[in-house]
Amino acid sequence: MAVRPKQLFYMVDQVEALSKITNKNAEARWVETLRAVLDVPNVSIVLALGASRLDGIPAIVYAAEIVRRFTVDKYIQMAAYETPEAEDFVKDLLTNLINADRREALEASEKLS
Questions:
Q1: DSSP string, 84-97
Q2: pLDDT along the chain (113 residues), means of 10
Q3: Residue 72 gets which letter from DSSP?
Q4: In 3D, which of 93, 20, 32, 41 has the Cα closest to residue 66?
Q5: Dist CA 100 CA 94 (whole Å)
Q6: Which helix (H) or strand (E) holds 45?
Q7: In angstroms, rounded to a whole number, what is the distance separating the alpha carbons of residues 54 and 83?
Q8: Cα pseudo-dihedral 17, 23, 28, 31, rounded to 10
Q9: For residue 67, what are the CA distances in angstroms to 17, 25, 42, 47?
Q10: Whole-angstrom Cα distance, residue 23 to residue 25?
């Protein structure tokens, strides 16, 4: 069994608040910081935001250098927050981030199954 490196996972909610940033220098610093974090190996980031229209999405989130790092196919659009879709999304994230063999070994050793 190959050992995967540990993964750090950040989930940031209410990212729509970044649209309140009106200072171009501050916006550029946010983009640069987010870009730098996205370049760190073994770090996963989910940005959750609510917007009724595309123009409600903060410019920081769709800056070219950010989109290139996330890749377009990683942007998931949900019509509205619905519990089943949110649960499926989180389960899929955990399935992809957690080493199943190690989880099963831990479940067995702790008698969790």
A1: HHHHHHHHHHHHHH
A2: 72 92 95 94 87 86 90 75 81 82 85 74
A3: G
A4: 32
A5: 10
A6: strand 43-47
A7: 23
A8: 0
A9: 18, 20, 18, 12
A10: 6
Residue 110 pairs in a beta bridge with none
Q: Sign of the C-alpha dihedral, residues 75, 77, 78, 84?
A: negative
Q: How does 19-44 read in b/e, with b if 16+ C-beta sit within 10 Å?
A: bebeeeeebeebbeebeeeeeeeeee
Its pTM stands at 0.69
Q: What is the dihedral of CA 13, 61, 45, 25, to 10 degrees?
A: -100
The amino acid at residue 43 is: V
User: What residue has token string 């070219």?
Assistant: 64
Size of the chain in residues = 113
